[in-house]
Structure formats: structure tokens, C-alpha cells
Amino acid sequence: MRLDKFLWCVRLFPTRSEATEACRNGKVRLNDREVKAATEIGIGSACSVRRMPIWRTYEVIGIPTARVGAKLVPGLIRETTSLDDLEKLEQANRTRAENFGEGRPTKRDRRELDRFSEG
To answer: Is the pLDDT of residue 98 over 90?
Structure first.
């Protein structure tokens, strides 16, 4: 099975075109080397996907015939990402959540900003 189709079938990417684009941009590796989207994938292969700020690594256990439901994905791939990388990802997610704004300013907030910027 093609690598881009496999990544889409096991729900690592929402669309096949996004999986193809990730392969084209070097964000997907197969057995520690950059590959094209049309590369054939087999059982036992190690597939790595770049999810900022880490590379998430998966071992291929089975090959699906079509896109599968989320409950069936663990029977097809097993995540082998190191615990250090997963902690780094969790820390980045926490930092991103802390820096997330509270949304659009209210009318009162806007007026205060206007007063502050005027003088």
C-alpha cells in the first residue's frame, strides 16, 4: 500500500492530499529516511511523522484495505515514540494553552485600549 494512503487510512492525516503534502515536504519518514508518497509500506516498517516539536514514531502492525474507524487503528499501528519526546510535546501543548488569548475584546476592553493609546 502507498505510504500516503496508509497514513490517511490509519487516521494520522484527515485527508489523503494532506498526507501526500507532508511526504513532499519531508515531514514523513519511513525507516529513518525521507520518502515519496508513492513508497510502498509493509508490516514491520517504522514510520515517523513530524508533529511540532517532535517526531512521532509508529510501528506498522497491519495493512488496512480501506480507511478504518478510530477503534481499529491500534490493531494496525503501535506508537513507539520515546517518553521524553511525549513529555516535550505535552509541555509545548501546555505552554500553547497558557498563551492562548481570551478571544475578542469586549466593548469595554476596546474603549480602555483606545484611552491607553491616545494618551
So the answer is: no
Say how many domains are in the chain: 1
pTM comes to 0.78
Q: Which residues pair with residue 30 across a beta bridge? A: 33, 47
User: Which position has the higher pLDDT, 104 or 62?
Assistant: 62
Averaged pLDDT for residues 63-78 = 95
Domain holding 57, by residue range, is 3-118
Phi, psi of 49 (to 5 degrees): -125, 130
Distance CA 79, CA 101 (A): 32
Three-state DSSP state, 20? helix
Q: Provide DSSP, 86-101.
A: HHHHHHHHHHHHHT--
At 89, which CATH number? 3.10.290.10
Tell me the pairing of strands 46-51 and 77-79: unpaired
